[in-house]
Each structure stands twice: as structure tokens, then as C-alpha cells.
Amino acid sequence: MGKVNNALRMLAILRSRKKVTRRELAEELEVDIRQITRYKEDLEYAGVTITESRGKYGGYILENKDYLLNLELSDKENLALSKTKDYLKGQGVHFYNDLSLAIEKILSINPKSSNYFSENIYSKGRRIKVNQQEESKKWLIINDGIIRGGKGCNIPGIYFENKELTKKDKKSLKWAIENNIKIISQSFVENKRDIDHIRKYICEINGDLKSIKLLSKIETNLGVDNFKEIIRYSDGIIIARGDLIPECGLINSVDKEFDLLLKVKKYEKEKEVIIATHILDNMRKGIIPNINELESIYTFVNLGVTGFLLASETSIGNYPVKSVEMLKMLINLYKK
Fold this sequence. Notes:
By secondary structure, this protein is of the alpha/beta class. It has helices spanning about 5-15, 20-30, 35-45, 75-90, 95-105, 115-120, 165-180, 190-205, 220-225, 225-230, 240-250, 250-265, 290-305, 310-315, 320-335, and strands spanning about 50-55, 60, 120-125, 125-130, 135-140, 145, 185, 215-220, 235-240, 270-275, 305-310. The strands form 4 sheets. The protein has a 5-stranded parallel sheet. Strands 1-2 form a two-stranded antiparallel sheet. A two-stranded antiparallel sheet has the order 3-6. The longest helix is centred in the last third of the chain and has 18 residues, at about 250-265. The chain is globular, with a radius of gyration of 23 Å.
């Protein structure tokens, strides 16, 4: 994102919270921490007063919370933007992705619009009402911030005993079979029943199970604990670090993933083991990985993983093709 846009996003974050550290701002804006100081200087040059408290609990404080009011839209204006976005999506407009992103940015800083509250939670540490599909729900907000529509929520320890395939799942599987897709991965697999649901449905629609690889994404504590039965009923597993981190905790997730990798290679050494997410995060914004990413890939390759699954590098990154080319080159280089 551009410098001006990031400065405005920083201002929006400061408006929503009492105090924010430079590191927190850098993480949310996905920029170097030194860039935050430059944004602060630019905002101050524009007349925005930002004070900085020092010490262990220090951070940036926005003196006047009334900035950006000119960017707030009425309910009708907000609805018009949303409808425009939906309309253009069906017209095949070549610049739809850029326009959609621009609209999302505008909607994300309009806390007064009714559409905003139907898809987002915008908090200042208080209890708020969220209207969605003519229903009212109350949420007790503990930490400030924005939860945008379409985002998931990790709640460690929750287990759904009777998980069934949804209509969307079945539609996607049917499309995959009809289009001769040979690899299908199931998210949040926690036992063999989760895989059985897919196998049964593929048979129902006359799919050829023998020609399809079924990969189970392990991304919860229960999935890790049940890895033996999961790997037995799958053609391989994907260690999905993106969700394993919030499920197990950042520090514990590292131990979990390496322990799982070594156990699987010992127990079912012929099965696929794929590492997913946070592979080349540095290449979302640039064309060169950092040393930590190189060392991580080197370690996994020589521990016997059979592949990697890129996520944000190719979905929202600026250099998706270069990320794939870099990863392929590193795998070939590091194989012993």
C-alpha cells in the first residue's frame, strides 16, 4: 500500500485506541518500524497532533480524536458503494480487484454506517450492538481493533463432534471432480471421520478415489493428538501453521510442528508431509526472502518434507510468481 494510505490507516488506528506502540502499528500496517516514525512526521506536518509517551508502557497518543470525520459516509452512500462493488464483480471489469480493495479501505474507516456494523466490529473497549440480518447481537470487546467481514475466529479447545460437509463443501468437491482435480485438501481435520465424509461424497458423485490424493490439514491440538488415525486414512498431511499458531500459541506451535513432522516421518515415512503458511512472508512486499526463511526452508527440506504450501505470498502478495520461482529454486538447491 502507498505511503498516504498507510498514514491514513495509522491515523484510523490511533483514533480507535487510547495508546498504540510503534511496534503494534508496524505489525498492523506490515511495514518496517522505522516507517512508523515517518508516517507520524507526515501526519504532524498535516496538522495532526500525536504525542509519544516514553518508557515500558509508552506509545503514540492521538490528542484530538475528531480527525477523519470528513471520510465518514452516510448509510445510503455506504450502501451505494457496496452495491457498486457487487454489480461490477459480475460485469468482468478488468480493474475490479483494485476497485474492490479501494472500496474496502473506505468502508473500513466508516464506523457510523449501518453496513459497517453488519460486517464488522469496531470497538473502543465497550459493549456494542451489531445488526445483521435483522438480528441484534451484543459483544463484550476486550481489546480494541477492527474485525472485518469474512474473517475467521480461532477458539482453542472447541470441538464439533458431528461435522458434516456443507452445501458449499459439496459444490466445491463436485466442481473439483468434474474438472479433474487430483489433489484435495480438507481443513481442520481432527479425526478419521472428517476424511470419511469426503471419501463417501466423492463416491456418491462417482469420483475415482484411486486417482485423487486426499490431504488432511492438521491445525488444532486435537488434530495433532490424533495424527496416527488421520495419516492412516489420508494420502498425506499438511501442517498448517497459520491456524496452528493461534490454536497452540506462538511459542508452543514450533515444538508441535517439528514433533509432528518427526513422528509422521517415522510412523508413515512414505506419506506426504507439507508445510503451509509463513514460508516466504518477506516476499509479500519484496523480491528477496530473509535469512530466517531460508534457514527454515533448508531445515524442513532436510528433515524430509515433501512440499510447501504458500498462502499470503501468492494470494495477496505483490510477487506471487517470483515467490513460487524462489521456493522451487531453494528446494532444488537444498536437497541433499
